[in-house]
Amino acid sequence: MTVTKHLRNPPHLDELAAVIEKSLLSNFETASFRVVECPDLAQPPFSLAGSGLSGNPRIADIGGQQHLFPKPILSAKYSLLSLAGNMDMSPHAGFIFGAGAAPFQDIGQNGELAPNLSWRGNDTASSFKDPSLLALNNGTRVIKLQADHEPICERLSSTNCALMMNLFGSDGDTGPVLKINAKARTGEHNFTNCIRYGLQEIYGDARPISLGGVFILKAGKAKFHIMPDFPLEDQLPFRDRKQLEKEWLSYHIFQAPVVCLTVMHSADPEGLGLRMEHTHSFDADGNRKGGHYHYGIQDEDEDVEYEAYFNVASMVYRIDQPSV
Ligand code: ZN
Prior knowledge:
Layout: E1 3-7, H1 13-25, E2 28-37, E3 58-63, E4 77-79, H2 80-86, E5 93-101, H3 104-107, E6 112-114, E7 116-120, E8 135-138, E9 141-145, E10 151-155, E11 160-170, E12 176-185, H4 191-203, E13 210-219, E14 221-226, H5 241-248, E15 250-255, E16 258-265, E17 277-282, E18 290-296, E19 305-312, E20 315-319
Parallel strand pairs: 3-20
Antiparallel strand pairs: 1-20, 2-12, 3-11, 4-11, 5-6, 5-7, 5-11, 6-9, 7-8, 9-10, 12-19, 13-16, 13-19, 14-15, 14-18, 16-17, 17-18
The structure holds zinc ion.
The site of zinc ion has 5 residues, from strand 17.
């Protein structure tokens, strides 16, 4: 598996807060930004597998949409723990989360994955090659369509994934993070893209910023998609992207609260084919909501409210970049 590493040199969080503030205020009625000590993300409302976003923060982009379109490439199967090894993470302590495709090889169908996994390895022999020596805390959710086409969001014991994956990794330590609140969308961009475009405008290709974190849709509703199972062989390849997006994907509007795990990049100057933004969501309290985050619902966005905690990565890993 090919792995390339790309250094990032992000500005201080205080500087980023000012840039993001300007961008969000052009798109939301109210927005506030502060650098704070990360709250314990293992507690509600997030209830993640790790507590913080600090300690060697890094981001990986694995595989890609070319593994789905025009035809699913079913050899693109991955292990989150092996990927953590590819990301040079320590087997002694770590926390990864993000957005990607569910391990069809384990669950028997395609779906969305919201990976959320931490580990401790107390043994000096701890290694990602032998997960039996690691104490895992797996809060990963799979969001898929059931036989009646209704969505379901379930905890998944598997530590595998497939096709494409965007991960934020750190030692899971508590440390300074960017806290963002935004309320009542007035502009055309969704929460994550608004942040991304604001960074792109200021830093351009000269200083790419890669960040990740968690946010909660606290009020209002937003639009999500869920990938159905793979089409039958005689229905492949997909005719075009429009068919995939308009006819194949299953769209749902979910009411707050929804927890969202996100990874984004302001630029891709090295031409790594990065997924510039990828956010997957899950139902913290139940099993009905979740999937790939699109945007708030334009006409009803006066109600929408977000609270986010982000950190910036100092290294980007491109893993198994598709050749096409
Ligand atoms: Zn997605």
